[in-house]
Amino acid sequence: MTNTAIDTSNMVVSDEVAVEIVNMNKWYGEFHVLRDINLTVNRGERIVICGPSGSGKSTLIRCINRLEEHQKGKIVVDGIELTSDLKNIDKIRSEVGMVFQHFNLFPHLTILENCTLAPIWVRKTPRREAEEIAMHFLEKVKIPDQAHKYPGQLSGGQQQRVAIARALCMKPRIMLFDEPTSALDPEMIKEVLDTMIELAQEGMTMLCVTHEMGFARQVANRVIFMDQGQIVEQNEPEEFFLNPQSERTKLFLSQILGH
Amino acid sequence: MSNAKSVAFVATKMIPPSPPPSGSVGPIHWAREHLFPTPLNALLTLVSIAFVLWLTPEIIRWAFIDAVWKAGSLAECREIARAAGVEGSFACWAVINERFNQFMFGFYPSELYWRPILAFALLLVALAPVLFAHLPRKMLIFSAVYPFLAYWLIWGDSLWAPLSAMAGFAVAYAAFRALSGGVVQLGLAAAAAAAGLAAVLWWLFAASSAAEAMQAVLPLSIEHVESAKLGGFLLALILGVSGIAMSLPLGILLALGRKSDLPVLKGICVAFIEFIRGVPLITLLFVASTLLNYFLPPGTSFDLILRVVIMVTLFAAAYMAEVIRGGLAALPQGQYEAAAALGLDYWKSMRLVILPQALKISIPGIVNTFIGLFKDTTLVSVIGLLDPVGIIAPMRADSNWNGIVWEFYGFVALFFFIFCFGMSRYSMYLEGKLKTDHR
Amino acid sequence: MTAVTDPSQGGFRIGMLLSDTRYRGATIQTIALIAFLTAGYWLVDNVISNLAALGKDFSFRFMTEPAGYDINQRLIEYTSRSSHATAAVVGILNTLLVAVLGCALATVIGVVAGVLRLSNNWIVAKLMTVYVETVRNIPVLIQILLLAAVFDEFLPHPKQAGTLSLFGLVDTGVVATNRGFYVPGPVFHDGSAWVVGALIVGILLSIGYARHARRVQQDTGEILPVLPVRLGLIVGLPLVVMLVLSAVGAPPITMESPVLKGFNFQGGIYMRNSLVALWLALSIYTGAFIAENVRAGILSVPKGQTEAAYALGLRPRRTMQLVILPQAMRVIIPPLISQYLNLTKNSSLAIAVGYMDATGTLGGITLNQTGKEMETLMLLMAFYLSISLTISMVMNLYNEQVKLVERTSATGFAPSLGHLLNNVTGPWRNLTKGDAQHQPLYGVAGWLNLVVLLYGAIWLALLVYLFLMDTPAQREPYFLWPTSRQIVFLALTASTMSAFLTIVFKHFRAIDFAALTLVLWVAASLLGVDLDGLAADLPDGVVTYGGFAAQVAAIAYLLFGKRPNLTYLNRVKEAG
Ligand SMILES: Nc1ncnc2c1ncn2[C@@H]1O[C@H](COP(=O)(O)OP(=O)(O)OP(=O)(O)O)[C@@H](O)[C@H]1O
Ligand SMILES: [Mg+2]
What does the alpha-carbon distance between residue C78 and residue C86 come to, in Å, rounded to a whole number? Predict the structure, then answer.
């Protein structure tokens, strides 16, 4: 992925805080999954989270849009604190887009309907307008011609791009990605990553769980390494990869880059 | 990337896991999550608890504490209960006690009870190698002989009749060997067809005279028991076990026929399956009891139980065929192609590659069909057979016991529940085992 | 045989009949066919000689003779002097009655139990598991007999019976006695036509409102409340009319409660214990199976679907409505329909408790009295077969529809008449697979479809006939009618049927049939067939022009209907 030069003109990080996590703790029953997480994400930041399996990466980003509930600490998204207040949850969920490892497209709806569902029912957009928005984003992920097909008729890479477009249709200010490429073949990985890079170039705030180190080097302005439910190390990508400080990070990087 | 320097962070130490805040684990938390999450749920929970707390002691009281176990009639039962100070209803198990043998054997002569009991015990022996794969395969020979043995034990009469019936299979086998490999070289299918024909000819024309001849030479017989005397759970088991044993192979054949690409064969199988599945079993039992004799040569008639077994088998086979067809359809096309690529012919590829997998997939469905068949055996009471359900009517009409209901049906229901529940658990066990096998 | 010229082709030898793949199939089939025909011949021959030996003949003439027995639970007029045919009709209606009642109650029980089994309320979930496991593993016949016996033995005599109440709170007005159940029933007075009219208007308005709401949402995005308003229109409007009329002093519909008169209750609806026992037992039994289907259906939707919907900001209720249910329904409905079919077939156990359904009349007393085992059992089986095939057909249409929308995942397994045809016909199969190259074969599929629909039409015809002509004198067997009337009647019901199917399924294959019936219809009226004579009770012209209009409307609806069209044909067109 070194061949494409990245246009960084729009990738500015502002001082405005998008997500703030303070001393957040989460348990599954007796199991302490997230331990004292502190993280501040500014608007326009692109953060890559990596770490061994089971370290709590997915749980962390799922807490941000309340797919999981945290028990201690504070999460503030876009100035709204996540509590069990339904109104706040609704507001945050429609501001935060999420892309899953297994796409999770709705198989009974066409691509277009997948994309218009939430704008129509959550944002109360008129259908025609919603469809225009959807077509715009489908063009952006380069599959406008598939709009009337069903998810089952698309390849994995295409499905994941639709999932991205679906999230974008809600015009979110923050995007969460949970290993968006790990269920894909190498060729498809590229098309999805290209879409994500484009998104980054437009200045979207992104939190991305991924092990695509090339992607991290290219677009991230921060890489976070998690292990055993806590943030072990975070740094700028160059530093992180060339100069890891913690033993765990070194071990992890040697494993992941070793072959 | 102005603030890059400020982000650098390395954890100095690992944070040890700490216990969750109180209230998010433990029995109270569990109860709040699983019993009283919302007011509506709390109400439901309270109603359910009240229901259980009321019903369970009530049933225990009715069935055990206040129950009367020995008495000669319902009136006597009531007296005993009143003497014991029981108020309200109670179970009068005395009637089950008195009629236990009828529930078990119908009107089978009591001095011959050992025969069905022996047959049942041998059934377990015959079943063992089928159910548990690790037993020696030689035991299957006994399983093969068992049906004839059981027939003889239960109905009695000359041993030569079942033996000569069994000889039909020997004739078929000999014919098959001779035609497929030995004397003449025919295709496997043709040899099998010819062998089948030979067996049918044997049964139609030679079997009975052979049996009579042998009987004359060496009389080997035990007391004959008429079909009309069979009843109770004995009858249910006879119908269930023979239906189960015969419907599986027939169902496999039908499923293969339905999947074959020979239109005539396929048409016949499809029509048969759809017809049987489209009508209620009871109409087929009516056919067995009133109509089947019309289809036989004038003057012949055969036993009602046998006719019923045939109908029940055909009925279950049609359902079985659909279950197995589902299993066949679930197999990837690649399996068929791989088998063909190995040079296996149709029967070999079916027997060695396709069927073992398809049957494995369909085990839950097959067992469900078995359960359905076993439950359906109760329908024979409608055409006047004295199965456990059919035998209740005359007992209820008995003036000594007039007025008893729950005890009769509860007892029979419990019997069926134990068998069917057992079978369904066994199927779940197999399913679980299967899943791990595949991994 | 000729000399071998080409080793790969070869000449013909007898042995090749079996060893050569070209002939092998044909040989086997010929043998199978011969064997099958021989067996058939043998059986028929036996039947003929057996009948001759008994001095019986094979005819259905006995159906017009007086039945001579009473049926105490009936929906239409019947006396013991009515014919066996009428008795059979009474039985068939009784079967349908218990089947419809049973399916409705079983669905309610099944859905509630299935959903509760999934609830995170531990004790409720466990109780439902106990219910399902217990009921499924006990033969339904035992449950029916037990209930019937309990009703007969333990319910009070009418003289001692009072009305049942719910937990001592609400008086239901139902009287349960050992003679049967007496339920309050509605009595329709003169003004009831207004209430029915209000109901129809309410339904029409609610449809109009739903369209309006959809349009508003399309244009402005505003989401109007649909369900409460529609319910209000359908229920509220007739209610208001009723209240107004009652206030004026002429209540159009009153509830009549059973009252003890002499030894029995009079008034209201009377249901024999056998009917109630059969109904409850079948519903409880089938409900357990439906609960399992519902549970499996809901579980079949992966958790990721809910999460994705939540992540998009949808509320749980909307997620249920827009994401979970549409997917779960596809899994639930096919087995649900098979359960309905099972319930209908199991209703034949009525004979064990003396409820006079089709089995009890046709296969019971009529069989015993006339000694016509062959004929009565044939009719009985034909009846059940046609019900089964009809239900299968509906299920198949549904499956096909669902499959078109979602091609990737299998929608369960539905053995049916449609499958039968699928298997017999290549083109149809290709059609459902969605191969656009097979468009020229639509004609073939259309014709096959015709056969299916024609059969459905015959069945519907029978029903319409039973209900429209409720007078025993007119209820002569269909096959005794004049041919022209037979054909016309068939066409009438066929057109109703195809119009119905067109509207329900918007299925492109219905259009072939609608067009054909239209032609038949016009031809019949041009030839001067007395179409209106079919339903003499209706005013002149209603049948002739109504049938015509229904057909034209159906075709127009299919062609020009603006609804998002789910039919395959349109999909292919859209995809280009
Ligand atoms: N619903 C749950 N209940 C209990 N434990 C859970 C649940 N979900 C996750 N866990 C546990 O929490 C830990 C963190 O899970 P998480 O999915 O966040 O890991 P991850 O870092 O995303 O791993 P991966 O790279 O495999 O996706 C794991 O040990 C997992 O077993
Ligand atoms: Mg993860």
Answer: 7
Task: List the Cα angle A131/A133/A138 in 5-degree steps.
Answer: 90
Give the pLDDT of residue C420. Answer: 38
Continuous segment of H or E residues that includes residue A44: none
A32 Cα: distance to centroid of ligand 1 (angstroms):
11
Contact C335, B365 (CB under 8 A): no
Instruction: Return the amino acid letter for B408.
Output: F
Is the predicted pLDDT of residue C362 greater than 60, yes or no? yes
Where along chain B do its domains lie?
Answer: 24-97, 231-390
The first and second tokens of residue B22, run together, are 């109180």
Going by CATH, does the domain composed of B231-390 fall within 1.10.3720.10? yes
Q: C277 lies in a domain?
A: no
User: Domain of C26?
Assistant: 2-54
Spell out the per-residue pLDDT of chain B, length 439, in tens: 444 445 678 887 888 888 888 777 778 888 888 888 888 889 989 999 999 999 999 999 999 888 888 888 889 988 998 888 888 888 889 999 889 999 999 999 989 999 999 999 999 998 888 877 777 888 888 888 888 888 889 888 888 888 888 888 888 888 888 777 655 555 666 777 788 888 888 887 887 888 888 888 887 788 888 888 899 999 999 999 999 889 999 999 999 988 887 888 888 888 899 899 999 999 999 999 988 888 888 877 778 898 999 999 999 999 999 999 888 888 887 888 888 888 887 778 888 888 888 888 888 889 999 999 999 999 999 999 999 999 999 998 988 888 889 999 999 999 999 999 999 998 888 877 777 655 4
**C-beta atoms of B274 and C352 within 8 A:** no
pLDDT in tens, B230-266: 999 999 999 999 998 899 999 999 999 888 878 888 8
Beta carbons of B8 and A36 less than 8 Å apart = no
Of B8, B11, B25, the CB nearest to A232: B11
Interface of A with C in 170-209 (CB under 8 A): 170
Total domain count, chain C: 2
For residue A54, the CA-to-ligand 1 centroid distance in Å is 5
In a domain, C225, yes or no: no
In the CATH hierarchy, which fold is given to the domain comprising A17-102+173-257? Rossmann fold (3.40.50)
Last residue of a domain, one of C16, C33, C54: C54
> Looking at ligand 1, which atom is closest to the CA of residue A31?
5
Distance from CA of B407 to the nearest CA of C (A): 10
Between helices C192-220 and A127-140, what is the axis angle to 10°? 40
**What is the best residue among A24, A25, A26, A28 to mutate for testing ligand 1's pocket, by most ligand atoms within 8 Å of CB?**
A28
Atom index in ligand 1 nearest the CA of residue A226 equals: 21
CB spacing of C409 vs A105 below 8 angstroms = no
For chain B, how far is it from start to end, CA to CA, in angstroms? 49
Q: Is the CB of A182 under 6 A from ligand 1?
A: no
Q: Do C371 and C325 touch, CB atoms closer than 8 A?
A: no
Give C495's Cβ-side CA count (13 Å radius).
Answer: 26
Ligand 1 and A56: CB distance under 6 A: yes
Contact assignment for B9 to A233 by CB distance below 8 Å = yes
Amino acid at C310: Y
The ligand 1 atom at the shortest distance from the C-alpha of residue A68 is: 1
Is the Cβ atom of A55 under 6 angstroms away from ligand 1? yes
Element (H, E) at C186: strand C185-188
Q: Cβ of B51 and C145 within 8 Å?
A: no
CA angle C453, C457, C461 (to 5 degrees): 175
Query: Does residue C500 sit within a domain?
Result: yes
The protein residue whose alpha carbon is closest to atom 2 in ligand 1 is A28
Mutate to test the pocket of ligand 1, among A30, A53, A207 (most ligand atoms within 8 A of CB): A53
Q: Are strands A17-28 and A72-77 parallel, antiparallel or unpaired?
A: antiparallel
